[in-house]
TrEMBL record:
Protein topology in the membrane: Multi-pass membrane protein
InterPro entries named among the record's database cross-references: NCS2
Protein name, per record: Purine permease ygfU
Keywords in alphabetical order: Membrane, Transmembrane, Transmembrane helix, Transport
Family, as annotated: Belongs to the nucleobase:cation symporter-2 (NCS2) (TC 2.A.40) family.
Species this chain originates from: Hafnia alvei
Domain of life (superkingdom): Bacteria
Transmembrane segments: 12-32, 41-62
Molecular functions (GO terms): xanthine transmembrane transporter activity
């Protein structure tokens, strides 16, 4: 997306996302028929590997903030509060 954004701007990024969504919708019926050949352990491994492969990107986003910014602590407090509330709520409902 960075390369598309540098050359075509936000319109190019939006168009690429829309095109990818349409392509996904068109391919979904065929891929859905292939899912039955893969056991749950294989699917879980694939999802885990995808998550691990994008982990450095998330780390860069976390570490890329300006820690000296005045509004940083407010954003951090809001995000921490949302995470805590979601975690607490999930624990209450999953018991």
């Amino acid at each position: 997306m960075t390369l598309i954004g540098q050359q075509y701007g936000i319109g190019g990024i939006s168009g690429a996302v829309i095109a990818a969504g349409i392509f996904t919708l068109l391919c979904a019926p065929f891929v859905c028929k292939l899912v039955r050949f893969f056991p749950k352990a294989v699917m879980g491994t694939i999802v885990t590997l995808i998550g691990l492969s994008i982990l450095p990107v998330a780390g860069g986003w976390i570490g890329g903030g300006d820690l000296d910014a005045v509004s940083f602590w407010q954003l951090r407090l809001a995000v921490d509060g949302l995470i805590y509330a979601g975690h607490r709520d999930a624990n209450l409902h999953l018991r």
